[in-house]
Amino acid sequence: MIAVESVSKRFGDFTALDDITFEAPDGKLTALLGPSGSGKSTLLRVIAGLEVPDSGNVVVSGTDATRLPPQKRGIGFVFQHYAAFKHMTLRDNVAFGLKIRKKPKAETKAKVDELLHLVGLDGFQDRYPNQLSGGQRQRMALARALAVEPSVLLLDEPFGALDANVRADLRAWLRRLHEQVPVTTVLVTHDQEEAMELADRIVLLKNGRIAQAGAPRDLYEHPADAFVMGFLGRVSKVGDELVRPHDVALSDRPEDGWEEAMVQRVVHLGFEVRVEVVRSDGEEISAQLTRAEAEALEPEAGSIVWLRPPAGKVSA
Amino acid sequence: MSVDRKARISLRVVALGYLAVLLLVPVALVFYRTFENGIVSFIDSITTPAAIHALFLTLEVAAITVPLNAIFGVLAAMALVRGRFPGKRLLDALIDLPFAISPVVVGLALLLVFGRTGWFGPWLTEHGIQIIFSVPGIVIATLFVSMPFVVREVQPVLQEVGDEQEQAAATLGAGPWQTFWRVTLPAIRWGLAYGVVLSTARAIGEFGAVSVVSGKIAGETETLTLLVEKRFQNFDLAGAYAASALLALIALTTLFAMSLIGSRRSES
């Protein structure tokens, strides 16, 4: 388990982390989510020992690690830009930590082969990093980090430098890997979808503070404030309240308590259809329908519909 | 033939002609003059005791200065790229000083510091240490003029490589020393090799600063370049050409090493 206790860190006038406290439970994947500049990467680097906090403590597996150098923390770290050792073959990259620990050669070789198999890079042993794609390099980096059997695995925007397709594949792959090798993991990401898909727990950061922490579904269903709600999904503003666009119901005939509105725009997004309407008081509202719902309603620009806004989750 | 093509070809002719007149012809003439009277006279004039001593002194000075330059250069480049300390920009600018100052001025400056009447002069004399007009002076002068090469070759490579690989090594358990040998040094190896070659070439070819501080004592503090000048002054032209050819041969070897390293470097 990783426990971060009242950690603060400033860079000159900039407060990167302001009194952060959270725990990453054993065997689970915790996501540090937030916009750029929210302090999430700094927080991960503090956990790794690559940055020293101004105050507060970091406890890794029950040991106060705040003053320990990175080498002594029993961590595995994966960088956004892979940080592959360019002058070494894949085999030597993955074996690096084992060679530092002076493991016997046979054991090292067996371990490296096993890990390369685990990350799906069999047969690439003798290649150099510049002969691999970005996704392959990142899988190599993960194998390298796992080779030393770290008690915690820290991933700093591991898919941030990859194409959208590769990113989605690797995300699914990482989830399966984590099920096979359930090492305590902290993942930094600015992508809420990635966090929702991968994490058992999300810690959402804003301006160096925790905006909300909890299970992904809790954050989505019960956001603490407008920022959390807006960051975790699309929002539609109805009066002074924020709602999810898919909670806005539309009908082609008047019903009790529903409000009349005119369709302005219909956008087909594959499975979903976004319908932008304007109420008689001039307020614009965005609703999200499934394709089946849209086919039943047949909305088009200029047509009149009735809408029922749900109870708002948070005030704007 | 289009105008464009004509212009391109005439530009090439001008550029190649310029190189030929300034570089190729003079160097070729040195070799021509050297071997004009046969290889035997060449060998005779580079195997006189003074010439052999000059050759070995030159190589000895290079053998002392180049490793020092390499070590200092890598340390300075790491400090300049990775370090955060006051006066960093000033240090960065000072590295180029040896390029900016004429070597003769460097020699005179060293006289002012280490000479008999210089700052440390009395103290040095008292302790029986002689720097000026002896080998240590030549070494210091050569160090000064050949210092920037390694720093300036390694610095941009370090900058480009970044510190993520080093951080990755640290998270994998490597201490600072292991990280340097296993990660940093291999990453900068071609830049370092290039800097070392340039620094060697400069150390071997240095004349101005060495000329001031060495005292030009034949068989003692006379380097190859000083020997060339002395023979030339004494109207021993054949001897001067022979010594020059020897210097040029060393330089050509360095050039060859440089182009080898250059191609390896652009590959990686």
Provide the gyration radius of chain A in Å. 24 Å
Low-confidence regions of chain A: none
Strand content of chain A is 25-35%
CATH architecture of the largest domain in chain A: 3-Layer(aba) Sandwich
Reading off the top of the CATH hierarchy, the class of the largest domain in chain A is best stated as: Alpha Beta
Tally of distinct domains of chain A: 2
* Largest β sheet strand count, sense and barrel closure of chain B: none
CATH superfamily of the largest domain in chain A: P-loop containing nucleotide triphosphate hydrolases
Here the CATH topology of the largest domain in chain B equals MetI-like fold
Q: How would you describe what is shown here?
A:
The complex is a heterodimer of chains A (316) and B (268). By secondary structure, chain A is α+β, with helices and mostly antiparallel strands. Chain A has two domains: 2-228, Rossmann fold; 235-315, OB fold (Dihydrolipoamide Acetyltransferase, E2P). Chain A has nine helices and 18 strands. Chain A has a six-stranded mixed sheet with strand order 6-7-8-3-9-10, with helices on both faces. A five-stranded antiparallel sheet of chain A has the order 13-17-14-15-16. Chain A has a four-stranded antiparallel sheet with strand order 2-1-4-5, covered by helices on one side. Chain A is elongated and about 75 Å long. The two termini of chain A are 36 Å apart. The mean pLDDT of chain A is 91. Chain B is an all-alpha fold and 268 residues long. Chain B folds into two domains: 1-36; 37-267, MetI-like (MetI-like fold), CATH 1.10.3720.10. In chain B, 81% of the residues lie in helices and 0% in strands. Chain B is built from 14 helices and no strands. Chain B has helices at 3-35, 39-46, 49-82, 88-94, 97-100, 103-114, 121-126, 135-146, 148-161, 164-171, 176-205, 208-214, 224-233, 237-267. The two termini of chain B are 40 Å apart. The A-B interface holds A 48-50, 69-71, 73, 75-77, 79, 81, 83-88, 96-97, 100-101, 141, 144-145, 148 and B 164-165, 167-175, 178, 182-183, 186-187, 189, 268.
